[in-house]
Structures
1.
Amino acid sequence: MVQPKTLLISFLFLSLLVFIESKHDNHEVKEEEEEIVLKRSMFPNDFIFGVATSAYQVEGAYLEDGKGLSNWDVFTHVPGNTEGGENGDVADDHYHRYMEDIDKLEYLGVNAYRLSISWSRILPRGRFGDVNPKGVLFYNNIIDNMLLKGIEPFVTMHHFDIPQELEDRYGGWLDPQMQEDFVHFAKICFEKFGDRVKKWITINEPNIYTMFAFMEGTYPPMRCSIPFGNCSAGNSDLEPLIAAHNMLISHAKAVKLYRQQFQPTQGGSVGLAVNAFHFEPYTDDEFSYQAVERSYAFNFAWLFDPLIHGDYPPLMRKYVGNDLPKFSKQEKKLLKGSVDFLGVNHYTTFYAIDCLNSDECTLTENRPVKGFVGITSTRNGILIGDETGIPVFHVVSYGMEKLLNNLSIRYPNTSIYITENGYSPPNYKEGSEMLQDFKRIEYHKAYLVAVAKAMRKGAKVEGYFAWSFMDNYEWGQGYKVTFGLYYVDRNTMKRTPRLSARWYKDFIANTEKSSTY
Ligand SMILES: *[C@@H]1O[C@H](CO)[C@@H](O)[C@H](O)[C@H]1NC(C)=O
Ligand SMILES: *[C@@H]1O[C@H](CO)[C@@H](O)[C@H](O)[C@H]1NC(C)=O
Ligand SMILES: *[C@@H]1O[C@H](CO)[C@@H](O)[C@H](O)[C@H]1NC(C)=O
């Protein structure tokens, strides 16, 4: 175990080295390879620096004040479904501690906070029942108190949790009826909160959600088919595509409603958040470069292309054919240009392996729905980056820069918010040992430098949200995957700022002393 002091000295030493190198060696070094030390001044004054959470992961109070059951409440209560049987019944008890938490946001000095609304807290039975006034009151309290401290709400409407009733009635996102339910929910949100909420994210990560819920069957409603998994029902090749299709159309209909009925008076903007990875070619040949192209298409362009250009990426159509649902002419019109900004959740980079001409792929990778791309984090026995608490996530900060530059080529002049970016340590440890989180600081610094470099090359990035404000319920993986700038004691619920929280505060305030971290 390296003592913090030793680490501190070596960090100091390292940054000195970088400084000396860049002073004397600047003629040979190309701009891309130059070591850059992160500074607040690399970002515009009005740049958004925030932190993010989502409702189910932090709120708890799963049965309080008239809230209906969500799909996650039901799913996590079935033995065997989640790591250690853990659930979000209490989570971080944010429902009762939000005032304390807003004080902590103020301490951090963030100018924005990304939260999500629990659909079943507002509409316990979806459109088949009434609005729950106590649910509305809870979010009003949060929003009002944030605004009092000068913190802008970025509100996600749907972040993985839906009222269970919609699942029971018609199978949730697999059914087009969901479009009507989503628009109903969105309308309530605009009506109740839109006078104060000016940044909306309709849906979080349709690509990740549909993969786990309908391809691998590890999130509710646990549907899949062999060889992806052995669920009691489902079709892993088709259903993720159908569910995402319904999500996209739901988004577009909600945005149409917003633009017609609310935007003229409320003046806000709407986006959708996608989990976007970067991919590097596994080998230095044309097949691998094509695999990277397909990875981009099947990972984020699947969703961003329709929102910007009005239809799925041609590469997806080419490989998935008629299994990929089609938009009607009217739907295309509705979708095209239906976002004011792209929400980008970015964590890591993979190597992309071409499965069309290689036998290095698994059975599941070698399918049309995966674009015939295999992914790996290892090449020639060497990991692509340092390990994290999510086994397939590694620290690859240059991936952020390349991703953002590629996004701005594909979607020119489109505003981007990094709606999630963060680090969890590979080995969970209880208690104070976890407070000295140098690796998390290093991660955020390196990724922020990558954002700044991409912006210098023209990426229109307007904000950055660290995932996460505090440790929380990491879905099926429970509480031992910790992304928080704040450590949350599971027994007492006490929140303690990690070193990274102090660093982020100092960085945002531009009072960072380089020797401190
Ligand atoms: C799938 O699960 C069923 C029921 O648990 C079992 O009978 C069957 O052998 C499993 N199939 C495979 C291929 O694992
Ligand atoms: C886009 O991604 C590819 C594939 O990794 C990479 O080679 C390229 O440099 C990226 N483009 C930009 C402009 O960063
Ligand atoms: C880019 O977008 C802004 C507003 O979103 C607009 O004012 C500007 O004209 C656009 N620039 C180009 C080159 O399209």
Note: The radius of gyration is 22 Å.
2.
Amino acid sequence: MLTRDKMRSTTRSFEKYYNPELHGEIRMDTNTNVLGNNPAASAALRDLDIDINGYPNTYSDGLRDALAELYGLERDNFVVGSGSDEMLDVSFKTFTEWGDTCVSPVPSYTLYNYFIELNGGKAVNVDLDEDFQLDVDAMLAPKGKVMIMPSPNNPTGNTFRTKDLEEILVRTDGIVIIDEAYGEYAKESMISKVNEFDNLIVLRTFSKAYAMAGLRVGYAVAGRSVAEMMTCVKIPYSLNMVSEIAATAAVKDQEFIRKSVEMVNEQRPYLDAGLRKLGFETFHSDSNFIMARSPIDHAELVSGLKRKGVMIRDFGAKRRTENCIRTTIGTKELNDIMLEKMAEVIQGC
Ligand SMILES: *Cc1c(COP(=O)(O)O)cnc(C)c1O
């Protein structure tokens, strides 16, 4: 048996990622699109007639051109790869030196510390305020070489104030990564500002609103200088040909995204009211999920629901989200099923 001291020192404490056992449950735990497969991407996959013997385009120019047109930017403002998780990895690989301090807020996405430490950085986590908004001075105090925050934030659901993000961008010498994994659902985005702030990186994904998590496509948007640096560091050909074709088709057909956002906007107040009626304390969401504090023990709620065939995500054992769960906002039918099962679990308690 090999022991962990054989591992790179910065990775010895790592544990496996969320990997639940599945028995055909309704998945309200991953914030993917509840309307199902992206139709334009599916159609492109059905019609595939490609030369898989050749390499894909080195930097996925077809997809980058489609994104440039969507946002009114240039191809060279984009770096695409295998999920926004690869773009996170590339960002830290490009900008952090061994031992550099990197700052992220708490509570937020748990994978940030993993990517920071994997790349030799020192993760410093700074508390959000009572309303889960950024404490700008506290975020700047550790003088991070890289700062990273999701907006809308996961798991809390709210966006951060644009003026706070801009203040951080102006006052730091470091790189600032805004992870807009749920950006399609939010009212504001930093993408239009990548040519204004040369230390800004915005991350987006095809895993959530685009309903393509299985194809692993994500992208970074940045000023041309930062985008070029990241392009030089990224593993060439990391985005495969099949995924690039599907993603390009999806970008060119925005109707599904519009419909998905409209559905979420309609169902958000409905689910929020339903949760409150059951005794949950709910938190403001600008995304396709809601965080809520459970009226019964979080672990009992989550495991009881799983036995009834519905999965939600448990954040109840973590500081600042004590006894909280996170659930994806479903269609009316899905929300009704979940609320009914929740009521049964709570009554049985
Ligand atoms: C889901 C999610 C991602 C997506 O990662 P992919 O690698 O693109 O699937 C990134 N950041 C946050 C905050 C997320 O919730």
Note: Residues 101 and 122 are 5 Å apart (CA to CA).
